[in-house]
Design goal:
single chain, alpha/beta, 5-stranded parallel beta sheet, two-stranded antiparallel sheet, globular, binds zinc ion, Sulfotransferase family protein, P-loop_NTPase
Amino acid sequence: MSNENPAGQASAGLPSTSLKSVTLLLGSPFSGSSLLGQSLNDIQGIAYAGEIDNMHRFAFPLHRESNHYRSRCAICITHDPYDCPIYPLDPQPLGDPESVTIDAYLEVLSRFNEPFVVDGSKNVDWLWYLNARGLLDVLPTRVIVVTRSVWAFAASQFRAGNTNIYQSAEGWRNIYRHALRTVSVLAPPSLLIRHEDFVSNMDKWLSRAAWFVSDRPHNIFEPKPLHCIGGNPSAYAIREEFDKQGHLRVVPDHERPVSMEKLSFFGASEAPRSQPIERWGHLIDRQQAKNILGIPGIMDTMLDLGYDPLGMLEEHAAWLALGRQGT
Ligand SMILES: [Zn+2]
């Protein structure tokens, strides 16, 4: 019905007729949400909005915040000049996170003009904030809990400069206990996707995720430009090309490279992949891996998220032994 261009218009404050539901991703940083989100963005009717729990800071002046990139589109920020049609520089930021209204939230979701929008914030308290203001009463709201193993998370934190892997493991535990309890209490329709499963069988898990998000068992591959706040630009780079200045550029759909993952999803041959353990196996030794499992609550949380932690420890030991043989 709606044929006005919704991009950048902040007027209505009501969902466009096309908006049917929102799906919030919940979980820790480094849980693969950018890869999942941009993959869903390639499905007809689904848009990935990025981490919009920062929407109070949209268009925040770049020099005034340390994590200022979260106030502008992660793709279009590499353009000169910045020209994002979904996250324009106006209106000015609200400043106070408590000032975000449900109408403003729905307006942001409506800008994509797609029926199913994915909010990749991962922030469990953001769902509580929206719930307290009535979101679950005005728009069908779903949740995908996105996870990676505690060791992969600790290794990613290590690479990011947080060298205390035990502290990182405790942070991981707290986030997922909070997420699982929140899903139990608020009871939105929910799906759990382990990143390790997603990358090892994208065909199956992207299909399930798209079905869950859109209520449609058969989804149509229809790549569209990605516009999102925050996230992991290197994940987006899988699907985008770099220009001569090293900036990401949004390429027209017909020019977009089609990755093997996409081809796999639509029945082509499966791409060879690295094992998830290669992301962390060399950064955490056997004793450290066992020590992390010994922290109260870690083993339980791994089991509750569907992992086989003892089997993974054995796999890690075997992987390390294989590496030693090779040298
Ligand atoms: Zn953009």
